[in-house]
Amino acid sequence: VEQLPSQINGFQENMVVRGRLSKNFDTERNWEFMKQVHAEGQVQRIFVDPAIKKELCRFARQKNELYRFDDVLRSIRPLGNHHDHMHIRLK
Questions:
Q1: pLDDT (tens digit, 9 = 90+) per residue, 15-36?
Q2: H or E stretch including 37?
Q3: Cβ(15)–Cβ(63) under 8 Å?
Q4: Given its phi and psi angles, is residue 25 left (phi above 0), alpha (psi -120 to 50 degrees) or beta?
Q5: Residue 82 burial by CB count (10 A; 0-12/13-18/19+): exposed, middle or buried?
Q6: Cα–Cα distance between 91 and 22 in angstroms, integer?
Q7: Is 64 left (phi over 0), alpha (psi -120 to 50) or beta?
């Protein structure tokens, strides 16, 4: 896995390099995390790399959860420079 200068901010690995997800990105665990955080009712937005948003939508569709958790997917916003972290904006 090619590393960009993530070590500057303390993160060990970029989950997205040149628009592609790392083989170490755990889609299922991240999707479950997003649903759990959102279930608390305080999430306004979750900012992630566009490749991560695309993958989470694909995974939700595959699990037949696209419409059941559309509120979660709508809160996840693609935003550049989020290849090694996410931001969660609370209400």
A1: 887 788 888 899 999 999 999 9
A2: helix 27-39
A3: no
A4: beta
A5: buried
A6: 31
A7: left
Tell me what the pLDDT averaged over the chain comes to: 86
Q: Which residues of the chain have pLDDT under 70?
A: 1-12
76: tokens are 């996840």
Instruction: For residue 46, give both structure tokens.
Output: 């979750």
In a 3-state reduction of DSSP, which class is residue 10?
coil
Q: Is 74 helix (H, G, I), strand (E, B) or coil?
A: helix
Which amino acid type is present at position 14? N
pTM of the model: 0.82
